[in-house]
Amino acid sequence: MKETTLNIKFTEYDHINELNVNDAQLIQSAEENLKNAYAPYSLFKVSSAIQLNNAKMVLGTNQENAAYPSGLCAERVAIFSAKSTYPTANVETVVIVTAQENSTPFSPCGGCRQVLMEYELTQKKPIRVILKSGNSKIWIFNSVKDLLPFAFDADDILKKE
Ligand code: THU
């Protein structure tokens, strides 16, 4: 028998002005776009801003539906849009913000972590994830792996020639 402990690392910042200009601008863009969230059922507005390595930024917000499961989370809207428009670009940073006030940021859902992981694995470069809720502290993860340890890897199912 062997017990193992995993270490998960993230950095906490008290205020946006402690961040570098690029990260601060990305958060600001995501927050400005919160108004475009379509969340009439949960009233929980979420917005995401994605920085690509081709200098493009792509935004997304949660889009709900009267048939609840048909809606989609903000970060998935953003990353699917980014990869649909710029399929060869690498994702450098994903910002996810909510309007909801909290002392700590909200945590992205498991399905979205899996989707972010797909692109981190295929681009073979870590994706930074930045989280903030209202005026909360800011959490920065340097890799999706820190949010989704033991992730399912497509390499496990892809047939090798
Ligand atoms: N939501 C997101 O946009 N991202 C997440 O990671 C978690 C939840 C949205 C989905 C739904 O529109 C609302 O928040 C409440 O669950």
The CATH class turns out to be Alpha Beta
Please summarize the sheet with the most strands: 6 strands, mixed
Strand order of the largest sheet: 1-6-5-4-2-3
The backbone outline, from C-alpha atoms, is: globular
**Oligomer category:** single chain
SS-derived structural category? alpha+beta
**What are the bound molecules?**
tetrahydrodeoxyuridine
CATH architecture: 3-Layer(aba) Sandwich
CATH superfamily: Cytidine Deaminase, domain 2
Percentage of β-strand residues: 15-25%
Note the gap between the termini.
37 Å
Q: How many individual helices? A: 3
Write down the overall mean pLDDT.
95
Q: Point out poorly predicted stretches.
A: none
Number of strands: 6
Properties at a glance:
single chain, 161 residues, alpha+beta, Cytidine Deaminase, domain 2, 6-stranded mixed β-sheet, 24% helix, globular, binds tetrahydrodeoxyuridine
Short note summarizing the structure:
This protein is an alpha+beta fold and 161 residues long.
What does this structure look like?
- The chain is α+β, with helices and mostly antiparallel strands.
- The protein has a single domain, classed as 3-Layer(aba) Sandwich (Cytidine Deaminase, domain 2).
- Helix content is about 25%, strand content about 20%.
- The chain contains 3 helices and 6 strands.
- The protein has helices spanning about 20-30, 75-85, 110-125, and strands at about 10-15, 45-50, 55-60, 90-100, 130-135, 140.
- The protein has a 6-stranded mixed sheet with strand order 1-6-5-4-2-3, with helices on both faces.
- β4, α3 (about 110-125) and β5 form a beta-alpha-beta unit.
- It is globular, with a radius of gyration of 16 Å.
- The model has no long low-confidence stretch (mean pLDDT about 95).
- Tetrahydrodeoxyuridine binds near residues 39, 44, 71, 74 and 112.
